[in-house]
Amino acid sequence: MYFSTVVCCILVTAIKEVLTIITSGLFTIRTEGCTIPGFSKVTERIKMIVAAPPLTRNCTAPEKLVRANTSHIWVAHEAIDSYNVFREDTFYCCYKHFSAPINLNNIVYSECKEFVTVIKVEHEFVQIECYHLDEVIYTDFFLFDFHKEITTNSSHSQESFNVLILGIESMSRLNFHRTMPKTASFLKERGVLEFHGYNKLGDNSLPNLFPLLTGFSYKYVKKICVQNSIFNVDKCALIWDKFKEKGFHTALGSDSIAGLLGNYEYTLPRIPTDSYLQPFIFETRKLFRNQQYNFHPCMGSKYFYKVLLDYIYELAQHLTLHKFFGIFWEESISHEDLNSPHIMDESYVNFLTKLHKDNYLDRTVLIILSDHGMRWGKIVETEQGRLEERLPLLNILFPEQFKQRYKLAFYNIKHNVHRLTTPYDIHETLLDLLNPNSLDDSKIKERSRAPSLNKSSLFVPISAIRNCSSVGIEEHWCACRRGEKIKVGNKMKTMAATNLVVQINKLLKKYSQCHKLILSYIYDVYLVEHNGNWRIYTAMVKTEPGGGIFDGTLIQDTSRWLISGTVSRLNLYRNHSDCVENEDIKLYCYCC
Ligand SMILES: *[C@@H]1O[C@H](CO)[C@@H](O)[C@H](O)[C@H]1NC(C)=O
Ligand SMILES: *[C@@H]1O[C@H](CO)[C@@H](O)[C@H](O)[C@H]1NC(C)=O
Ligand SMILES: *[C@@H]1O[C@H](CO)[C@@H](O)[C@H](O)[C@H]1NC(C)=O
Ligand SMILES: *[C@@H]1O[C@H](CO)[C@@H](O)[C@H](O)[C@H]1NC(C)=O
Ligand SMILES: *[C@@H]1O[C@H](CO)[C@@H](O)[C@H](O)[C@H]1NC(C)=O
Ligand SMILES: *[C@@H]1O[C@H](CO)[C@@H](O)[C@H](O)[C@H]1NC(C)=O
Questions:
Q1: Could you report the per-residue pLDDT of 333-345, keeping only the tens digit for each?
Q2: Which spans of this chain does the record mark as coiled coil (predicted)?
Q3: 42, 386, 425, 547: which has the highest count of C-beta atoms within 10 A?
Q4: Could you tell which of 66, 67, 70, 71 is best to mutate to test the pocket of ligand 2, judged by most ligand atoms within 8 Å of the CB?
Q5: What is the predicted pLDDT for the residue at 26?
């Protein structure tokens, strides 16, 4: 019985695979519940857009007055002249270390330790200030490899694997291939699984990150898990807490203050993980803030994303004997510009190659993913761009040992790359990695009997009848094609576009500081689906004042027009929305 089922499955899968090969190119995925059209990396329509040079500048900085190696900080006397120090007897530097004992709202600095030539380093996060004639003439920050002592006492058992999650902000599957081809081929050569039908749940980071981190929807999180902007970790566990309970050494870090809930909109009540980079990132931004961007690419002459990669690598070197769960989020380069990730390709390959050479990847499940694709700029004015926005990167690399030990689980996940999947599924998958004995063949067989339609570990077969509404993807963000798009006639085109603007103005009604918007241009309107009682349209319009470009999905029933999901903003609002705090309203508001 057992054998015949397996043989049958393999046969059916083989046929499916042939079909997939034949249809690849035409379709991204094609299942009963969801068909996503196929695109190649570079098509005629986007050729010019993706060929534009990266916007991110190179990092340069004035000569450093203090320098450091791994154990000491010293004054670079050769640089002292360029700082106009004419009375060396009044010159000294000051070593302070800092930490966040409770959370990022309470960063505490030590007393100043004076030095004039060299000082030994004894802390992880250090600030140096140098004085001349009692005035601060130089400030700098240094990050050292003094990771908190490893307190977990469960070392690696045969069954457990490390989990290393590397987030790359605003990165679609295809943009990863376009901008980071070396990294992509490093992973491909090692048999990475690339998920084609990974669809975002909501517009920006949080609606996609919270489901991954908690297993709950963003709506639920906002209602139940957050009080006065403080996240209640006792009510809603975050995934790293679960790993910590199981004896993993946990780590969290981002190269930006906005990354991974870092005090952007939600304060974590206490330091979340055993190793935590954010206090450092938080303090350095005071110095390296670039006024033009929300995100700051450079820490002096070093890219912030490299600070992050170095941090991860050092942790990995310390933790060779311990179970490790780490989640890290790059944001400073890829958030702002479609083509800037080119800059990072070489460093990511080098980083992964080092982990590979250290045999670290032999014990580690590596997950490289994003929250959504690029949400603004020229690319989202194209159909391909709007699809890519909805289809973020999700790559998972398993070590050989894992594949051998959990054969059926690996067999399943390999075939789920052509299914419709969401961040909820990653959460479930992480829970399985937490309890590896749930992955034994017998358990997986058991669990495969009653597959869940909406939320499922990727280690069990995902149903082909899944569709966007069954997995909780908002209509507007659904990449599955629903019938043919038909360009609608002039009158309906204008009506749909006008109604989109009416709906946006309704959202702004309570905010008297925002201008009422008027329709200034209609890019396109499509009739997506209809029956006798209702019609679904998508419309892309420009409004004034402010020149905002918006894309929305509208439902027209017999008596009224409604918005489905969120209206997306396709260009930057920059400083036009400074008069409102609410992140959702900022998208639409043009301040009076
Ligand atoms: C940035 O650095 C790269 C590599 O060193 C160089 O090729 C490029 O011309 C530089 N770009 C600018 C704008 O200076
Ligand atoms: C770091 O610099 C200090 C002071 O210059 C020196 O004594 C020490 O040997 C250096 N350490 C390394 C690892 O280079
Ligand atoms: C370490 O081991 C001891 C006894 O073996 C146990 O009581 C304790 O809970 C463990 N600590 C952690 C952090 O796992
Ligand atoms: C989505 O799937 C559910 C459950 O299978 C089904 O009831 C619903 O009709 C489907 N929706 C669409 C739009 O096909
Ligand atoms: C998934 O389905 C279960 C049972 O039908 C339901 O309770 C749950 O709310 C659904 N979750 C999502 C995210 O739609
Ligand atoms: C917004 O920025 C632009 C240019 O960066 C500047 O000219 C303008 O005055 C700013 N507007 C406000 C309201 O700060």
A1: 999 899 999 999 9
A2: none
A3: 425
A4: 71
A5: 61
